[in-house]
Design goal:
The complex is a heterodimer of chains A (278) and B (255).
Chain A (H helix, E strand, L loop, with lengths): L10 E12 L2 E13 L4 E5 L6 H8 L7 E6 L2 E2 L7 E5 L10 H11 L6 H14 L15 H13 L5 E5 L7 H17 L3 E5 L3 H7 L2 E5 L6 E6 L14 H17 L18
Parallel strand pairs in A: 3-8, 3-9, 6-7, 7-8
Antiparallel strand pairs in A: 1-2, 1-4, 4-5, 9-10
Helix pairs in contact in A: 2-3, 2-4
Chain B lengths: L2 H26 L10 H46 L1 H16 L2 H11 L4 H26 L3 H8 L5 H38 L5 H11 L3 H30 L8
Helix pairs in contact in B: 2-3, 2-5, 2-7, 2-8, 2-9, 3-5, 4-5, 4-7, 5-7, 6-7, 7-8, 7-9, 8-9
The chains are: A alpha/beta (278), B mainly alpha (255).
Chain lengths: 278, 255
C-alpha cells in the first residue's frame, strides 16, 4: 500500500506502475518507479529508447494518470493538469499564425496570472533577451531557425512562472553547438529565477552538465535503476564536462545505460580516472 | 522588364492572343452567327442586353453565395464532428463519398419535384449540396491530423477542449479550409447554373443562356459564358483576399 502522507519534495513519484492498452494486450512501461525531486533542483532522466521516459512527463504534468501509485506535485496529489507546470518538447510547437511574442504569451491566456498585461509583456521581452532573441518578438516562427524556435519555446514554458518545468528532450533535434549554447542558457534562466526541473534526455553529457541528480531508468517496464548525484560546485561551464570527475560520472552513466539495455553486467564497474578522495 | 509589368502584361497578351485566334478561326471558316459566335459579336450582345445581364447576374450571384455560405457552415460542422470523433468519421465517410459521387445534374429534377416552385430555395440547395463536401473533408483532415504536442501545450495548463479548438485547432486548419473553399466556390457556381439550366424557372444567368439556346442566339450564349467566367473570377478572388487576411501566415516568403 502506497503511503498517503503529503510529500516534502517538489515532485515525487511513489511506486508508479503504468501500462498502455494495446491490441496485443497490456504493454507495461513503468514498474514501481519512485522518483524524488527536491524544490528548485534539476533532475535529468536518461534511459534506453522506448523505456517510458515520455510517459513519465505525461504523468507528472497530469496529462495522464498512472494505473497504480501516486504522483505528487508541490504537496498535492496530481489528478489533472496544473497551471503551475511549464512544458517544452523536442518539437518546439510554435503557432505559425502568431508572432514570437504572442506565442510566448500563450500560457497567460489560459492561466490566471497576477501579472498585468504590461508586466507580462515586459517579462516576455526580458526572457527573450535572456535566451538571446532580442529583436525577434514580432517575427513569425517560420522566420526563425530550429535553435531559435526552441529558445522561444523555452520562454513560453516559463512565462507564467511555473514552479515545475518539464522538458521532454527539448534539445534533441538541435546541432551540437546550438545545444551547448542552450545548456548555458538553461543555467542562466535558473540563476535568474529558480524552478524545479524534470528533463528527459538521451544525451549523457547534457544530463551531467544540467542536472543535480541523474536518474537512469531500466529497460521497459522501467524502474529507477541508478541515481547519480552531480556535485559540481559553483556555476557550471562547459569546461566542467572535461574534468576527471565529470569523465568518471559519464563513464558510470554510460555503463548504467548498457546495463539497462541488457548489454553489460552491473558488477563490471568501469575504471575511474579521478582520485577517490573527493 | 520589371516584376509588375510582367505580372500584368503576360496574362493580358495571352488573352488578346486567344481572342485573336478565335476571331480569326471564325472568320477563316466563314462560320455564320447561328453556328459559332466570334469575340466581336459579343459586344453587341452585351450592349443590347446589359440590363438583363445585371439582373440575371445578381440572381445567380446571391444564390451562389448563400449556397456557399450554407456549405461553409454545414461543411465545417460535419468536418468538426468527423475530425474530433473517430466513430463519426468512420460512420460518415462512406455515406459522404457516396453522396458526393452522385452527379448533381440527376438530383436537380428530384429537388425540383420535391419543392415545387421554391426556385430560390432549390437553387441554393443544389449549390450547397455540390460544394460542402470538400470543406467537410478538409476541415476533418485538418483537425484529425493535429499533432498531439499542440494539444498538450494547452492541455498541460488545464485548458478546456473548446479553448484548444479555438486557439489552436481552428486557426491551424484555416489554410486547408481556404484551399477547399477555392474549390467549393467554383462548385457552388456550377450548382446554381445546373439548377437554372436543367430546371428552367426564368431566373439567373442560366435562364439567359437558355433563352439564347432556344432562339439560336449564339452571341448571347457566349456572352453569358463570359459573364459566368467574370462572376467566377470575382468570387474566387474574394476567397483569395479572405485567405490573405486570415491565413496569410501560411504563405512562405519565396526562396
Amino acid at each position: 500500500m502506497t503511503s498517503t502522507s503529503a510529500s516534502s519534495y517538489m515532485i515525487e513519484l511513489r511506486e508508479v506502475t503504468h501500462a498502455y492498452r494495446t491490441k496485443a494486450g497490456p504493454l507495461p512501461v513503468l514498474d514501481n518507479l519512485t522518483v524524488k525531486i527536491p524544490e528548485n533542483s534539476f533532475c535529468a532522466v536518461v534511459g534506453p529508447s522506448g523505456c517510458g521516459k515520455s510517459t513519465l512527463t505525461r504523468l507528472v504534468s497530469g496529462l495522464m494518470r498512472p494505473n497504480e501509485g501516486q504522483v505528487w506535485l508541490h504537496n498535492k496529489l496530481v489528478t489533472s493538469p496544473r497551471p503551475t507546470v511549464g512544458m517544452a518538447f523536442q518539437n518546439p510547437v510554435l503557432l505559425e499564425w502568431r508572432t514570437i511574442l504572442q506565442n510566448i504569451m500563450l500560457p497567460l491566456e489560459i492561466v490566471k496570472s497576477p501579472m498585468s498585461k504590461a508586466d507580462a509583456t515586459e517579462r516576455a521581452h526580458h526572457l527573450l533577451e535572456l535566451v538571446g532573441l532580442t529583436g525577434f518578438a514580432d517575427k513569425r516562427p517560420s522566420e526563425l531557425s530550429g535553435g531559435m524556435r526552441q529558445r522561444a519555446s523555452l520562454c513560453r514554458s516559463i512565462i507564467h512562472k511555473p514552479d515545475v518545468l518539464i522538458l521532454d528532450e527539448p534539445f534533441g533535434a538541435l546541432d551540437a553547438f546550438t545545444r551547448e549554447d542552450l545548456w548555458c542558457t538553461m543555467h542562466d534562466l535558473r540563476e535568474e529565477e529558480p524552478f524545479t526541473c524534470l528533463l528527459i534526455t538521451h544525451d549523457l553529457r547534457e544530463s551531467v552538465f544540467l542536472a543535480d541528480q541523474v536518474i537512469v531508468l531500466s529497460g521497459r517496464p522501467a524502474h529507477a535503476q541508478y541515481v547519480l548525484d552531480v556535485d559540481i560546485e559553483g556555476k557550471r561551464t562547459l569546461e566542467d564536462l572535461y574534468t576527471p570527475k565529470a569523465v568518471d560520472m559519464l563513464a558510470i552513466l554510460r555503463h548504467q545505460i548498457q546495463v539497462a539495455q541488457g548489454r553489460a553486467d552491473a558488477a563490471d564497474v568501469p575504471e575511474m580516472t579521478a582520485e577517490a578522495s573527493a | 522588364m520589371n516584376d509588375t509589368a510582367r505580372k500584368i502584361l503576360a496574362p493580358v497578351i495571352t488573352i488578346i492572343l486567344v481572342l485573336g485566334l478565335w476571331e480569326w478561326a471564325v472568320w477563316y471558316n466563314e462560320l455564320p452567327n447561328y453556328r459559332m459566335a466570334s469575340p466581336s459579336d459579343l459586344i453587341p450582345a452585351f450592349t443590347r442586353y446589359w440590363e438583363l445581364f445585371l439582373i440575371k447576374s445578381w440572381e445567380t450571384l446571391w444564390r451562389t453565395v448563400v449556397g456557399l455560405g450554407l456549405a461553409v457552415v454545414v461543411g465545417t460542422l460535419i468536418g468538426m464532428v468527423m475530425g474530433f470523433s473517430r466513430v463519426a468519421r468512420e460512420g460518415l465517410y462512406p455515406i459522404l463519398v457516396g453522396f458526393n459521387a452522385i452527379p448533381k445534374a440527376t438530383v436537380v429534377p428530384i429537388v425540383a419535384l420535391i419543392f415545387v416552385g421554391q426556385h430560390d430555395f432549390n437553387t441554393i440547395l443544389i449549390a450547397f449540396m455540390i460544394s460542402f463536401f470538400p470543406i467537410a473533408v478538409s476541415v476533418s483532415i485538418g483537425l484529425s491530423t493535429l499533432e498531439p504536442e499542440y494539444r498538450d501545450i494547452l492541455r498541460s495548463l488545464g485548458a478546456s477542449n473548446f479553448t484548444i479548438f479555438w486557439k489552436i485547432a481552428l486557426p491551424k486548419t484555416l489554410p486547408e479550409f481556404f484551399g477547399a473553399l477555392k474549390v467549393a466556390v467554383t462548385l457552388a457556381f456550377i450548382g446554381t447554373n445546373l439548377m437554372e439550366i436543367v430546371s428552367p424557372h426564368g431566373r439567373g444567368l442560366g435562364d439567359l443562356f437558355d433563352s439564347g439556346r432556344i432562339s439560336a442566339d449564339y452571341p448571347l450564349m457566349f456572352a453569358v459564358l463570359f459573364a459566368l467566367a467574370a462572376l467566377g473570377i470575382f468570387l474566387y478572388y474574394i476567397v483569395v483576399f479572405l485567405e490573405k487576411i486570415f491565413a496569410g501566415w501560411a504563405e512562405r516568403p519565396a526562396g
